[in-house]
Amino acid sequence: MLVTKRNHEFNLACPYFPNSDLPHDGTFFNGVTTPVHGREITTESKDLEFHEAAIDDDAHNDVVCSTPFTQILDEEAFDILEKSALATTKELSGHQSSTLSNRRESDIKIDDVNTVPLTIIAPRRTKRFVQLTDKLRSPYYKRTVDPNKRLKSTEERVSGCIFAGLDNEWDLVFETKFGDRGHRGIFESMIPGSKIHGTIIDIWATILNHQERHRNKKSPSRMFFSCTLLSNYILDEAICIEKRYKMFVDRMNEYIEKYKQCTNFKDVYLVFFPVLEFEHYYLIVFDLKKSQCVIIDNMYSEESLEVKYGNVPSDLKILFYLYIDALNHPKSNSIMRTIPVSLCMEWMTSRNYIDCGVFLMRHMETYKGENVDKWDVGLETELEDSDDQQMQLDELRKKYVTKILTSDLNVIKPSLYKMLASYDKLSDTEKESFNTEEHLMKIESRISLFY
Description:
The protein is α/β, with parallel strands linked by helices. 42% of the residues lie in helices and 9% in strands.
């Protein structure tokens, strides 16, 4: 009886489309008939695939049917669905015009927004995200790094080994089952005095998403996206909204499917979008519980948000609104009406132009939607006659590079132990030579190969 029920649920998730002589054989969605791509499906093959999937969740089976979620990743299917969606979204123009009537005009015009297909990305049926048991999500599980504790011997050894620049800069030192890869030269950008490479931020988002599985129930659920998701193409105001939105949807769907973190954002409170623009990192966070959009930046400035960030926050808000609105999220309209605001923190800087990547990683790790006065980031205030904050940032670099490389997600972690064995054989004099200005210039030349 249980097997029959499970087979029935599987048939609902992957419906069977028999072959037909009709000219339009395929799935019917949004008034458009889309061809089904893949091999011929029989009752026996469906049962076999179901049992194989039950045995190995990580197995990648061939696509057997085309659903709205998979259609958005196909360019031809997108063009077909777009024509249908353009007709259906005209009815929304009146409502959206009234929503934006009191808002500042951005480069994305409301007439352009009305032409974006809003219903083509909603998945018909999604795979349930498997949570860990309560015993593995203890409130005593430490997820955040303490910047005020002394460096451990492991952190000294791992960071010293990476920053020594001894081996080939193209050697892989980090790799996950999700496809994240990090070369040694990229991790060398974590050395104090250097700007952090964007790949580090992408890997850091993967680490934090993995840690979210261990959060206790009292902690707000968070989801982190990579800084490469917001490419220059998506942020380019000269490109029409339809093309930018299509790219945004492709990137979002690819990221969600890659990590299987969520599909509808209804169980997520905070959504993090790190932004890299003009060699500077800052963070845009959507609080879906409070219906807020906040900008977190370590650089203090008295300029207006329009001057400092241009239309990036407002354009991202519109793109994100269109995405979650297509998923029928209950807070989509509230997000559209919200005004992005910049948080003012005591640890903001006015002279530090190098460590914005470290600040970004710290903000992603510790921010949970609380008020600024209750946000325990653990950083000192920037003072002209004190180096306390700079010392914290330098040690955070060493702690973060150790946390990433020793993570359980790193499938090539055993190679790290071999590097440590070679590094331990060096004398103290040789290790001290890695702290000079000449050595930093050598590391910078190795890092430049990855830009």
